[in-house]
Amino acid sequence: MKKINLACIIEDDPTHVYITKRYLNLTGIVESILICSNGKDAFDKLKAIIASGKNLPELILLDLNMPIWDGWQFLDAFKEIPTKQKINIYILTSSDSQKDMERAEQYNMNSNYIVKPVSLDKLKDIILNM
């Protein structure tokens, strides 16, 4: 079974961070988890990882509605970072808005759009199909 060295949760709600982190740990597949409280925090931490020569997360679980930078602002900035590493980004949001789902299509992420709450089985499925 493939191990994930680093996963990143970009989420401002402590309850959702706790649940998602717990589920990732329960999969037994994720070695380390990076927690970011908003898109700007995540962008800055990921740029620092690149600058240090380390590998970026293989999996990013991204909330859309956050303060400072929302998920869309993060995606716009992150796509400008040059990397050859394969990164699987999943939008994990409470928004079931058709408008947000259509916007996700612009990022080719319509199949990576998950409405909260996430389940342990769904996270295992995501990881196993990466």
Overview of the molecule:
- It is a single chain.
- The protein has 130 residues and is an alpha/beta fold.
- It has one domain: Response regulator (Rossmann fold), CATH 3.40.50.2300.
- 41% of the residues lie in helices and 21% in strands.
- It contains 5 helices and 5 strands.
- A 5-stranded parallel sheet has the order 2-1-3-4-5.
- Helix 2 packs parallel to helix 3.
- The longest helix is centred in the N-terminal third of the chain and has 14 residues, at 14-27.
- 27% of the residues are buried.
- The mean pLDDT is 90.
Point out poorly predicted stretches: none
CATH class: Alpha Beta
| Major sheet strand order | 2-1-3-4-5
What is the fourth-level CATH superfamily?
Response regulator
The number of distinct structural domains comes to 1
Q: Got a strand count?
A: 5
Largest sheet: 5 strands, parallel
Global structural class: alpha/beta
Q: Radius of gyration, rounded?
A: 14 Å
Give me the CATH fold name.
Answer: Rossmann fold
- The shape is globular
Binned, the helix content reads: 40-55%
Beta-strand content: 15-25%
- What's the helix count? 5
CATH architecture: 3-Layer(aba) Sandwich
One letter per element, helices H and strands E, the order comes to EHEHEHEHEH
Could you give the distance between the termini?
11 Å
| Overall average residue pLDDT | 90
